[in-house]
Design goal:
The complex is a heterodimer of chains A (290) and B (316). Chain A is an all-alpha fold and 290 residues long. In chain A, 70% of the residues lie in helices and 0% in strands. In chain A, helix 6 crosses helix 9. With 316 residues, chain B is mainly alpha-helical. A two-stranded antiparallel ribbon of chain B has the order 1-2. The chains are: A mainly alpha (290), B mainly alpha (316). At the A-B interface, helix 2, helix 5, helix 6, helix 7 and helix 8 of A face helix 1, helix 3, helix 4, helix 5 and helix 6 of B.
Chain lengths: 290, 316
């Protein structure tokens, strides 16, 4: 790896002109500001005292940053009928179980689809790829009917189990597993390892970037899960749902709402920051080949 | 001819015999394959595959959840296309949104990924984060509501009024004249998602030696380099990114519902997804809603296929 990098630095940058480079910087600069401003604004709002939130004309930057909004948020939360910690627990539980299950189950499937040849494997993978081509909203109604038939409604299962089956995760994992040399798996088998052990102890450690990517992607979805279509009991509801209720509280709760928005926003962004290198490495094999 | 056949026959027989002897081990090996695939397959079939079929079935029925489905043939589809003006309006809005945000979002993902790739590694990581963050920051797009708020507190209004361009506040999110434009801006802001990351990765993966070889072949500037070397090299990522963009751009619904309300003024930004939610979760006309879902399903798959066949021509 190191040698490769050194070689890259040595190569001259071809086909690049100073004019083009300046244009590049200008374009990225302008659009970068456009991309980041709303996010910066979300941060600003969270630290503004109420009088600055409602000031006219509106001001972008915060003058006297305060943590009032966060204390307000926690006071509001402690007044809720269901203890606030319960919402946090629900979301953490759903996210962790859903994510772990997704990584294990999807990787297992990806492993056999990539490394075994068996009747039906190609058709199945094509179906998974096809499922990337339509949005989940299309199947929302039958999904609801199925959930109610198998008794998943109003339980964690309604959010956790479908998460195990995210098609994007299986797709990315299968493509990345192409990079595992077959000879390595073969030698493990000769040494007497069963298929599951070969998968778990040989293959999985080699695809760390891919399963980290699966972790992050499934985390992003589950962390923001409102779950309001499937879950009715207040004590099973999720954190984004509870925070949304505060956002709907209108002007009086604008400060706490801004704090809530920031809390929900920051977690996936920080996670992505941490795992960025691994995710990019995984996406390098993400292509759809004909 | 005869000799050729003679030569081939034993080969086929050999193969067959080989297959027969392998059959036993094949089954045993496949058993493990099926066992490892089973948990995923069961969930995928139950929550993705089966729902598509159920949706198709229900679209030919009258179904309100309380009574058993009643078969009515194509009636839902006929009503949808011949007498549901709001659906036709939703189709129009969805297509406008998809045709603008899909290609623009896709090309923007590609262009920004390409531009960012020229930056030194340290900046690159930061820029990737900045451009990708809006697509994963949950419902932060609600922030745009404050920017485009209809009163003078909105940033768009207060800035434009300060500059003297307008005299009274624009109703950005309730005046049909501006709503679609605002929605397009917000959707584009969030459109640099998984496809963008795939492009970033694809660009980093192009073998540098090919660029040097390109110079010898007469490539003169960065645009030619992009078209003749870079893009053909990352064709699989282009395909993947296209799938992500298309699916996303036809599935716009949450943004319109949250920013413009449901229903939006004069249904100016009512999308097919909004229509689907309206009939499915509000009016409980499940058969009719399923017909809407089926139409959307066909449109999504169809446009994916069309775009994929176009992408095969890249670099040719």
């Amino acid at each position: 790896m190191k040698r490769l990098k050194a070689k890259r630095i040595k190569t001259k940058r071809l086909n690049r002109t100073p004019g083009g480079d300046i244009l590049n910087i200008v374009v990225i600069g302008i659009f970068g500001v456009f991309m980041v401003l709303p996010l910066v604004y979300a941060v600003m709002q969270a630290f503004k005292p109420l009088d600055e939130i409602f000031i006219f004309p509106p001001r972008f930057f915060v003058r006297n940053p305060t943590l009032d909004n966060f204390t307000d948020l926690f006071i509001l939360m402690s007044q809720s009928w269901v203890p606030f910690t319960r919402y946090v627990f629900n979301t953490v539980f759903i996210t962790v179980v859903g994510t772990v299950g997704h990584v294990v189950i999807a990787s297992m499937a990806a492993f056999v689809l990539e490394k075994h040849k068996f009747p039906g494997s190609k058709v199945f993978f094509r179906l998974v790829v096809t499922s990337l081509m339509f949005a989940a909203a299309v199947t929302a109604i039958p999904n609801y009917l199925i959930m109610s038939r198998i008794g998943f409604l109003d339980s964690y299962l309604a959010l956790i189990v479908p998460a195990f089956g995210y098609s994007l995760g299986l797709f990315l994992m299968k493509q990345f597993m192409e990079t595992i040399p077959n000879s390595l798996l073969e030698s493990a088998r000769i040494d007497g390892a069963g298929e599951f052990r070969t998968f778990w102890q040989i293959a999985m450690p080699m695809v760390k970037p891919a399963w980290l990517t699966l972790v992050i992607f499934s985390f992003q979805i589950l962390w923001g899960e409102l779950g309001s279509t499937f879950i009715y009991s207040e004590e099973l509801k999720t954190l984004p749902y509870a925070l949304n209720q505060i956002l709907l509280g209108g002007f009086a709760r604008a400060g706490a709402g801004a704090a809530a928005t920031l809390l929900i926003m920051i977690v996936p962004i920080v996670l992505f920051m941490v795992a960025q290198g691994n995710i990019i490495q995984t996406m390098a094999t993400s292509g759809i080949k004909e | 001819m005869a000799t050729v056949i003679k030569e081939q026959k034993p080969k086929i027989r050999e193969k067959l015999v080989g297959r027969m002897t392998n059959l036993g081990t094949d089954i045993r090996k496949n058993k493990i394959s099926y066992a490892l695939l089973a948990p995923y397959a069961i969930i995928f079939i139950t929550f993705t595959l089966l729902p598509v079929l159920i949706s198709l079935y229900l679209s030919f029925n009258y179904y309100n959840i309380l009574e058993a489905p009643k078969f009515i043939g194509f009636e839902n589809y006929i009503k949808l296309f011949l007498s549901d003006d709001i659906f036709l309006q939703a189709v129009k809005n969805t297509f406008i949104l998809a045709f603008i945000t899909g290609p623009v979002g896709y090309l923007a993902s590609l262009m920004f990924a390409w531009f960012i790739n020229d930056f030194p590694a340290k900046f690159r990581a930061l820029l990737i984060l900045i451009f990708y963050a809006p697509s994963i920051s949950g419902n932060v797009y609600m922030i745009w509501m404050i920017m485009f708020s209809g009163d003078t507190y909105g940033y768009a209004n207060s800035t434009l009024m300060k500059l003297g361009i307008i005299n009274e506040p624009f109703q950005w999110l309730t005046d049909p004249e501006y709503m679609l434009g605002v929605i397009i801006v917000v959707v584009l802001w969030m459109s640099l998602g998984t496809g963008f990351l795939a492009f970033v990765a694809g660009l980093q993966g192009v073998d540098k030696a090919q660029y040097e070889a390109g110079i010898v072949d007469g490539i003169k500037n960065r645009w030619q380099e992009l078209w003749y070397i870079t893009l053909p090299n990352m064709k699989p990522m282009l395909m993947f990114g296209a799938v992500m963009s298309i699916t996303q751009s036809f599935a716009i619904g949450d943004v319109t519902q949250h920013l413009a309300g449901m229903p939006s003024t004069d249904y100016a930004v009512h999308t097919v997804i909004n229509h689907l939610v309206d009939y499915g979760s509000v009016r409980f006309e499940m058969g009719y809603a399923s017909a809407i879902a089926t139409v959307l399903f066909i449109v999504m798959i169809g446009s994916n296929k069309v775009v994929q066949s176009l992408l095969r021509k890249v670099g040719q």
